[in-house]
Amino acid sequence: MEKLLEVKNLEVSFQTYGGTVKAVRGVSFDLHKGETLAIVGESGSGKSVTSQSIMKLIPMPPGRISGGQILLSGEDIVPKTEKQMEKIRGKEISMIFQDPMTSLNPTMRVGTQIMEVLIKHQNMSKTDAKNRAIELLRLVGIPMPEKRVNQYPHEFSGGMRQRAMIAIALAANPKLLIADEPTTALDVTIQAQILELMKDLQNKMDTSIIFITHDLGVVANVADRVAVMYAGQIVEMGTVDEIFYDPRHPYTWGLLASMPSLENDEKAELAAIPGTPPDLTDPPKGDAFAARNQYALAIDFEEEPPMFQISETHFAKTWLLHPDAPKVEPPEAVKKRMRQLSSTFEKPVVVKEGK
Amino acid sequence: MAEKLLEIKNLKQHFNVGRPNMVKAVDGITFDIYKGETLGLVGESGCGKSTTGRTIIRLYDATDGQVLFEGEDVHGKKSAKELKKFNRKMQMIFQDPYASLNPRMTVADIIAEGIDIHGLAKSKKERMERVYELLDTVGLNKEHANRYPHEFSGGQRQRIGIARALAVDPDFIIADEPISALDVSIQAQVVNLMKKLQREKGLTYLFIAHDLSMVKYISDRIGVMYFGNLVELAPAEDLYNNPMHPYTQSLLSAIPLPDPETERSRRRKSYDPAVHNYSDNEKLEMREITPGHFVYCSEKEYNELKAKYAK
User: Fold this and answer.
1) Residue B18's domain spans which residues?
2) What does the UniProt keyword field contain (chain B) (predicted)?
3) Under a CB-based contact definition with an 8 Å cutoff, are residues A314 and A246 in contact?
């Protein structure tokens, strides 16, 4: 498969009064054509900052990409100027935001907001752009697009606005679509419609998607691969089956165990992850998750774990995979979902820093 | 479970009455809440679930209908003394822990506000002791008492909200989407805390949410609302295993589960109100299909459902 995007050892920090916040601390991943990568993690884990860096949307200053590369089709976009980025945004990469209520311009007609992209990036004439806008609205499932195209965002419902946002994002046939919690503000029934729509459009247009969410149900629904982020780092990455059926990192266990399952009839206490995420102005020594981790080993407080490789596609950053580590049992709720996957290596292999 | 704590009878809440933009947010719902149970209320945004909660606690004056708390009507004309009595027994936890705490008050004052109003502490010392005790109950510590809300994370703020609700020793707590604004790992912490408090203090909850998996986990019974009406009410297990109303079925089929295999084979149902094909003279009401399982339906549907589910 062709690689569309490669992120190598990305580091992003923010200057604040309290000191430098290291929001992203060495993140590496790649994305293939037509693939969906889900990034999960708590608020403050750096998932949104990572995705905004890819579009270079973080305000600089106070933000700064302090290291690493972002290769889009082989070309590094980190050194690019704002002018050059304007050619990329909306055309090569586009983004769907969480809140459809605030991310559309309330003073512009919905049609005009779609046409803007087409006129800028595809040099279309006004009439052509308008016809294409109507077509796009029809594509994303908005009824009566001829009428809707002349309406303002406040005349649209939440789900409709999110559809309009998707139409804007897809107007210039981008190669990469970043969806930052696109369904969090929506009801479950509407969420299901939007997810179906996104998958459908992905099939038609062969777009790659980075899907940011904290809802593991949504991840299971849309993702091909999953990256779990904690405190600015990817702690586990693998195919969706590997993450859900053979998770290795205790943080991933914690996330999976803290969700009540619908089939589960017993009313046992939920396995909450105690405490709160660490302060990233001064990241803790060793493993950032150690303080909240009931499986933490002595070494976790001393030295940062390396990335271990469990299969061709499965990576986890935890000392538990070290040959000398004691054998631990994951929580009950996780054990239930565990199964043997054929692709797993016999033994986890250490990969070099930064994968 | 047999004892009724709260009876809601044909409750209606209409906004902008008499004007063309009148909204029937809650349009005649009837249900009971038993002592010590958790009743979950789910539905899409705009279905009237929050309005129901707010009307029960008299944040809105009901347009019609009754809310009986231990047999006494909550609504209607009340003296200040009577109102105070109700306010002590009923408390509310709000959705947004950022907006529901006064940023200019310390945590101690926020929690003790109810204690002061109801005169529950005789001395300053007793008041602070009570505050410390409450902070301890919800898993915060003493040092937090003199801080301000902005110094806390979302999960901690929600704990402050819970401590405030507990301050006056209520019997009944309405929790309006108490965990929607929190992260998954923190959600579990807050839900566990609420369950623990219920066990220890024998509280009764009305738990309003749209996250159905969490609602199923915490609730004994669940009510499903659709456009201002309660369409189905059943024990939690029963509702998930045998959803009867087509809207409930569509709602359940839309919840994404954290299991890739079930997701790949998911068949989603959509709900079209036209499926009922009610004629004008059919009487629609909640009817009991199997014990404890109520569905909002017509006489004809009732007979069909009865034939299908009741053995």
Assistant:
1) 4-227
2) ATP-binding, Nucleotide-binding, Transport
3) yes
